[in-house]
Design a protein that fits this description.
globular; alpha+beta; three-stranded mixed beta sheet; BirA Bifunctional Protein, domain 2; single chain; seven-stranded mixed beta sheet
């Protein structure tokens, strides 16, 4: 079992404004690099908002109903809001495998394992960003998003998973540039999991994630 006891696991009980989250990540990234603070797994919710990654196409922003924030993470447009678990992962990859592709795959697998705790057969699909599953109607739908930034081998940003957000809020963007498939959530799949339930699943499966990125 991989020891993660020296990593701070922080769960916010109040919504965190996106600019505040960015500022906190920037500061913590530098502190981790300088070995002044521990690594951080930060679980939170945001107020309703859209973010634009480094590959975002303005044409894929269909509404300005919510604030739009540019961010240094990879990817395109993403929605964040209440009922969605956002996980910011701030780790020093120099202490582990300094392999960006492996880190992204491990992050995807972590989310997939956590969803499996609720009986959801989720998957990553080559060439299609995000975490995917099948709806009860047999249609593929997106249930999670991945977007990271790495500075001096210290990671920032991470993942988001739809537990019970207002799915109509996703209609203001083309999520991650993919318009052919819908977005879903645990609750839409008929799984009445709480945010605490999903956090517990993440914590249970976290050792698998750390084992995958260990040297």
């Amino acid at each position: 079992m991989t020891d993660i006891s020296n990593i701070e696991w922080r769960v916010e009980t109040e919504k965190v404004d996106y600019p505040d989250a960015l500022a906190t990540m920037e500061k913590r990234n530098a502190a981790i690099y300088n070995q002044e603070q521990s690594e951080l797994l930060w679980l939170l919710e945001h107020p309703p908002l859209y973010t634009a990654g480094t590959s975002a196409d303005p044409a894929e922003l269909l509404s300005e109903a919510f604030p739009v924030f540019n961010t240094g993470r990879g990817g395109r447009h993403t929605y964040h809001g209440p009922g969605q678990r956002v996980g910011y992962v701030l780790l020093d990859l120099k202490r582990r495998q300094a392999d960006v592709r492996n880190f992204v795959h491990a992050l995807e697998d972590w989310v997939i394992l956590a969803l499996a705790e609720f009986g959801v057969e989720a998957r990553a699909i080559d060439g299609r960003v995000g975490i995917w599953c099948d709806t009860p109607q047999g249609q593929e739908a997106k249930i999670g998003a991945i977007g990271i930034r790495i500075r001096k081998w210290v990671t920032m940003h991470g993942f988001s998973v739809n537990v019970d957000p207002n799915l109509s809020h996703f209609t203001g963007i083309i999520p991650c540039g993919i318009s052919e498939f819908p977005v879903t959530s645990l609750h839409q799949l008929g799984i009445n999991a709480t945010m605490n339930d999903f956090d517990a699943a993440l914590k249970k499966t976290a050792p698998n994630f750390f084992a995958a990125i260990a040297k």
